[in-house]
Amino acid sequence: MAEAIFAIPGDLKTATGGYAYDRRVIELLPDFGVAVRVLPLPASFPNPTDYDLEETRRIIAGRPQGSVLVVDGLAYGAFSEPVLDEIKGRVIGLVHHPLFLETGLPHGRKVELKESEERALQRANHIIVTSRVTKRIVTDKMGISSEKITVAEPGTDPAQRATGTGAPLQILAVGAVLPRKGYDLLVEALAPLKDIDWRLTIAGALDRHPQAVEAVQSAIEKHRLEDRVTLAGKVVPATLERFYESADLFVSASLFEGYGMVLAEAMARGLPIVLAAGGAAADTAGEAAALHVEAGNVAELTIALQRALTDKKLRDRLADASWEAGRTLPTWHETARRFAAVILGLRP
Questions:
Q1: Which of 14, 158, 231, 253 lies most in the core, judged by the most C-beta atoms within 10 Å?
Q2: Do residue 151 and residue 28 come from a single domain?
Q3: pLDDT truncated to tens, each residue of the chain (348 aa)?
Q4: Does the residue 123 lie in any domain?
Q5: What is the CATH number of the domain that holds 86?
Q6: Same domain, yes or no, for 104 and 209?
Q7: 301 in the same domain as 180
């Protein structure tokens, strides 16, 4: 059996789409003839200290030789030259979304990360990305040959179709509260729609970016929406399932998504969707299942939300299309198969 070592920063149990992707692939790879060992890296990536970079160099140097090294892009794109020089043997870079496209970064840091990520990806033997859009970004903006890139979209677990609530209309948004997720913009977009009976639940970790949480809370207080908007924080799977089951509308105001796993989860449950078409989100949800608006455009988002909340026939049409699209989403088995093929040196 072949062996792969997954180098992953921080806690693999972290509740984000990227870590969830890593967990599921690691769990399933042995079914395809690939044994996996996890190599923990410092949690400070993608903004490592000098000490953490030196620690990473030592970790990479001390790993067992002869195995394929798979490095999560959260760390790989921020590796220094000495760390890259320490990598011997075959290395695969996993890019969930390019680091330099993270919302809220100073321009200088964006430039640094883009240069660093390009340098690392050029040196990789192969690159796995999680969407066709990310592949285009890596080839067009970072100059990486498309021949060394494989798309392995996240899988989606089958689910029961959501029944909704109806009165009040339950709006659901899922994901950690980060600047990129645009939750403050979502609250601003909903503020003019107080004449409609809706409730918004945001289910996602509140400890990742205090400034982003503060921005959402400020928007809620400014518009006196405390009785309308719930910041549920990180929830257990059973609670999240109840949120999906009772939702009437799923919303993503994200400014950029490398894929948008929560959009796929919403489609697996047949939820109508309103989304900001940032990054791969528009591709993931498609045209029939969602109303698409320009990422960051609050006025457009308000109009789309008003349409979806006031037109039951529109919601039903979007829901039917969402349910049908959800039946065709890739499975985690397919994701792991494609991943294993790259590790084994085969064509996926």
A1: 253
A2: yes
A3: 899 999 999 999 988 889 999 999 999 999 999 999 999 999 999 999 999 999 999 999 999 888 999 999 999 999 999 999 999 999 999 999 899 999 888 999 999 999 999 999 999 999 999 999 999 999 999 999 999 999 999 999 999 999 999 899 999 999 999 999 999 999 999 999 999 999 999 999 999 899 999 999 999 999 999 999 999 999 999 999 999 999 999 999 999 998 889 999 999 999 999 999 988 888 888 889 999 999 999 999 999 999 999 999 999 999 999 999 999 999 999 999 999 999 999 876
A4: yes
A5: 3.40.50.2000
A6: no
A7: yes
Count of the separate structural domains present in the chain: 2
- Return d(Cα 48, Cα 42) in angstroms, integer: 8
Q: For residue 82, what are the domain limits?
A: 2-155+330-343
Count of residues in the chain: 348
Q: How does 131-151 read in b/e, with b if 16+ C-beta sit within 10 Å?
A: bebbbebbbeebebeeebbbb
Tokens 């999560």 — which residue? 72
